[in-house]
Amino acid sequence: MELANRIQQVTPSMTLAISAEAKAMKAAGIDVCSFSAGEPDFDTPTHIKAAAKRALDEGKTRYGPAAGEPALREAIAQKLRTDNHLDYQAENVIVTNGGKHSLYGLMMVAIEPGDEVIIPAPYWVSYPEMVKLAGGTPVIVPTTPESDYKITPAQLRAAITDKTKLFVLNSPSNPTGTVYTPAEIRALATVVLETDIYVVSDEIYEKILYDDTQHLSIGAVSPAVFERTIISNGFAKAYSMTGWRVGYLAGPQSLIKAVSILQGQSTSNVCTFAQYGAIAALTSPQDCVENMRLAFAERRAFIFDRVNRIAGLKATKPNGAFYLYVDIASLNLPSIEFCETLLKEHHVAMIPGIAFGKDGTVRISYATDMATIEEGMNRLEAFVKARL
Ligand SMILES: *Cc1c(COP(=O)(O)O)cnc(C)c1O
Questions:
Q1: What is the pLDDT of residue 255?
Q2: 165 contacts 116 by C-beta, under 8 angstroms
Q3: Which of 100, 179, 245, 323 to mutate to test the pocket of ligand 1 (most atoms within 8 A of CB)?
Q4: Where is the Aminotransferase class I/classII large domain positioned along the sequence (predicted)?
Q5: C-alpha distances out from residue 31 to 19, 41, 102, 385, Å
Q6: Dihedral angle sign, alpha carbons of residues 293, 294, 295, 299
Q7: Phi/psi of residue 201, each to 5°?
Q8: What is the domain partition of the chain in residue ranges?
Q9: What is the CA radius of gyration of the chain?
Q10: Which of 48, 199, 210, 320 could cross-link 179 (Cys pair, CB 3.0–4.6 Å)?
């Protein structure tokens, strides 16, 4: 069958592909150290699972409103007001099939052919592909390790044209772990206000922060910025609920209504009993989030130090998320070749930077246990030593 042009121009997710390959090798009995997965290695906290089980037993097994269970929309709005100082009501929130699908819904209802969407690189693999699926044009702005892979206000200003519709901001960042400081967020907000563009803030890693790093949601900068902000978030990363597929989009009511119409004609509601797990996640004590964060913090300290002691590698200090972003330029190997050889010869899985729009780098996910991290870093060191 002749496939539609819209799918032919989409690049498949390299992170999903490499994670699958590493899993297949493991299943075949190979001792693989995998640093490829973009998901916490913890089980979903017990009280969240219990709430979903209870919902099942209570018969929460039927179709619900396409925009989500009213109690969950209310809990999310409350969370956005309390945690992020964003004045949203339930009507400003739609529950989606993960943060990925909330961003997809946004692109589908907001982007017209010809519209430009500004995406700083290294970027999360799905942003440019979603923009293309919507018929828009991704405008990639490369950043450098010197700016901790952050887009500067001058770069943002220079990238804006009369076709720009949206700016995608992701802090803490996947793949770099970079977190914009409140001052940097305010400076970017100033540029947004000089124009009529919107900003979508992907805050899926907001709870995974280290040292005394602060997360400022750009919509909280001022009421004027709030009007131009859309928030995408979800339960996957903070609550270790990747497979549950629950996320959300918050923004102006007219936009949320449009995404709701799209969902009504495509997916309908997110799995009803999964939404009850999400309600428990938001309305219960947050110790589980903090405990996972502490585990990540310990691994981060170890791996950052360990990688930077390997001659030829240079890692940027991540202030959030669970990724280490490593410069491999001194090895003069394309990042795909680096990762393929490392996986084949040393059974270590990482994601090539080219997947995030920046060759000469790799992403190491440290959402795995310390023993794997220690062994994997030994193998990485042996590999790099032999290549230099
Ligand atoms: C994981 C992730 C998401 C969303 O994941 P879901 O599982 O769909 O909730 C969104 N943005 C980034 C940057 C991510 O890493």
A1: 98
A2: yes
A3: 100
A4: 31-380
A5: 14, 17, 36, 21
A6: positive
A7: -105, 110
A8: 5-44+287-385, 46-283
A9: 21
A10: 320
For ligand 1, pick from 202, 244, 246, 275 the residue to mutate: most ligand atoms within 8 Å of CB. 202
- Alpha-carbon span 84 to 238, nearest angstrom: 15
Are β-strands 348-349 and 33-34 bridged in parallel, bridged antiparallel, or unpaired?
Answer: parallel
- In the prediction, which pLDDT does 71 show? 98
**Gap between the Cα atoms of 108 and 353, Å rounded:** 27
Query: Mean pLDDT in each 10-residue stretch from start to end of the chain (388 residues)?
Result: 90 81 92 93 97 98 98 98 98 98 98 97 97 97 96 98 98 98 98 97 98 97 98 98 98 98 98 98 97 97 97 96 97 93 95 95 97 98 94
The reply to whether CATH 3.30.420.40 applies to domain 46-283 is no
CA–CA separation, 165 and 150 (whole Å)? 20
What is the pLDDT at residue 21?
87
Q: Tokens 């802090």 appear where? A: 171
| Ligand 1 contact via 247 beta carbon (within 6 Å) | yes
Q: Which CATH number fits domain 5-44+287-385: 3.90.1150.10, 2.40.50.140, 3.40.50.920, 3.40.50.1970?
A: 3.90.1150.10
236 Cβ closer than 6 Å to some ligand 1 atom: yes
Q: Considering only CA atoms, which of 177, 151, 140, 155 is closest in space to residue 326? A: 177
Question: Is 173's C-beta closer than 6 angstroms to any atom of ligand 1?
Answer: no
Q: Report which ligand 1 atom has the smallest distance to the Cα of 321.
A: 15
Tokens describing residue 105? 């819904």
pLDDT of residue 13: 79
pLDDT reported for residue 20: 86
| Contact 100 CB / ligand 1 (< 6 Å) | yes
Q: Which residues contact 232 (CB under 8 A, 6 or more apart)?
A: 99, 102, 103, 106, 200, 201, 202, 203, 204, 247, 248, 249
Assess whether the C-beta atom of 204 lies below 6 angstroms from ligand 1. yes
